[in-house]
Amino acid sequence: MSITAKNIWKRFDGKAVLRGVTVEAPTGALVALLGPSGSGKTTLLRIIAGLEVADSGAVQFHDDDITRHSARDRNMGFVFQHYALFRHMTVFENVAFGLRVRRWPEQKVRDRVHELLNLVKLPEMAARYPAQMSGGQRQRIALARALAPEPKVILLDEPFGALDAQVREELRHWLRRFHDQFHVTSIFVTHDQEEAFEVADRVIVMHDGKVEQAGTPAEVFEHPVNEFVMKFLGRVNVFQTLLKDGRVLLGNVEMPVGKGAVVETGSGKADVYVRPHELDIGRTADTGNCIRGKVVHINPAGSVVKVRVHAEDFGLMVNVDISPEKYRSMDLRADDQVFVSPKTAKIFEPDYTI
Ligand SMILES: Nc1ncnc2c1ncn2[C@@H]1O[C@H](COP(=O)(O)OP(=O)(O)OP(=O)(O)O)[C@@H](O)[C@H]1O
Q1: Coiled-coil segments, which residues (predicted)?
Q2: N or C: which end of the chain has fewer CB within 10 A?
Q3: Which residue's C-alpha comes closest to atom 24 of ligand 1?
Q4: Is any atom of ligand 1 closer than 6 Å to the C-beta of 41?
């Protein structure tokens, strides 16, 4: 069952927090709403859930307009950041709650609760109370509870936000595998880019009450449509360059931005974006087209080695990511002189100053 929110507007106290937002979660997809705090993700999710009313716009369940349906009639499951489990009820009763509200017969309730506890791999927890479980286990039970009444859509609002990094990562993989098994259409709110990319089939990047870009994780990461998306989706160096005669120059260094109207016809200043892994580093100025600098810091922890280089000629810090092999073979240290060359670069609309 696909779900669509069309041209949603919402104001709080006169301030528009959603400004004509359209999003779609195709049948069986796991879609992430990704954006910084205050971009309107939760408000949009609550409107889809029927917990908040939009000023204008429509919510559709497949081809049915459900804009005026109550939250209860929408039959969607929710999982929130802060464990929404009832403290005074056992795990069994928590999972059974939505079924009892719907007056399921007792035997069906029992069968369904046990089925779900098996699904979330916590069958032995039925008699426990929420306080007797870890945060990660509680969120799995919260998901079991949301799934119990067989909803067509699951809405998750920062479900792992309150957990520590390691548990969060485990739960992400778990959620992804879980989703691959059951394919319930799901919308997942997060402000964590890594989380969105690891879990979702589609990512919708929101900012300031609008959708900036929607697509697969690879599409939005590799082809960001604007500066906001570029900056939001990972670390990036921003170079202030000059457009001149079809060239994009940082001093004498030409930025390999490819062809396009901006470069062909533009002049004046323009920001150019280069991800740390799109820069090469060497001890000599082999290509000639490189930025001279001094290594100020090296962080070798992780799958890439993060090198910070001070480019004196331009008065800027440049972040370069290199492989551990390259780091070892160069025997790179702080204070070494290096030459940094861009392998590829990206330019958006220029900031004309003429
Ligand atoms: N009930 C409300 N009354 C007034 N303002 C609200 C209400 N709910 C949300 N807002 C405001 O709407 C804006 C969007 O909030 P929302 O919670 O949707 O953003 P978000 O992207 O989910 O942020 P976060 O990641 O911090 O939860 C914020 O400026 C917030 O203060």
Answers
A1: none
A2: C
A3: 37
A4: yes
pTM, two decimals, is 0.86
Residue 79 sits in a domain whose CATH number is 3.40.50.300
Atom number, ligand 1, closest to the C-alpha of residue 52: 1
With a 6 Å cutoff on the Cβ, whether 281 touches ligand 1 is no
Average of per-residue pLDDT across 321-350: 92
Residue 24 shares a structural domain with residue 8:
yes
Here the CATH number for the domain that contains residue 275 is 2.40.50.100
Q: What are the Cα distances from residue 317, in Å, to 147, 230, 290? A: 49, 18, 14
Pair 100, 151 in one domain: yes
Structure tokens at 331: 């025997």
Same domain as 245, residue 222:
no
Question: Distance from the CA of 120 to the center of ligand 1, in angstroms?
Answer: 31
Q: Does residue 35 line the site of ligand 1, with CB under 6 A?
A: yes
For the chain, give the mean pLDDT: 90
Q: With beta carbons less than 8 A apart as the criterion, state whether 332 and 353 touch.
A: no
Identify the residue whose C-alpha is closest to ligand 1 atom 7: 12
> What is the residue-wise DSSP string for 13-42?
TTEEEEEEEEEEE-TT-EEEEE--TTSSHH
Q: Do residues 251 and 206 share a domain?
A: no
Average pLDDT of the residues in 321-336: 95
- Pocket-testing residue among 13, 41, 193, 206, ligand 1, by greatest number of atoms within 8 A of Cβ: 41
Q: Which two tokens stand for residue 283?
A: 């001890």
Q: Is the CB of 42 under 6 A from ligand 1?
A: yes
Residue 353 is assigned to a structural domain of this protein: no
CA of residue 310 to ligand 1 center, whole Å: 39
Amino acid identity of residue 305, one-letter, is V
Q: What is the extent of the structural domain holding 104? A: 3-232
Domain count, the chain: 2
CB–CB of 26/4 below 8 Å? Answer: no
ipTM: 0.95
Which tens digits make up the pLDDT trace of 182-203?
A: 888 999 999 999 899 999 999 9
Do both 228 and 300 map to the same domain?
no
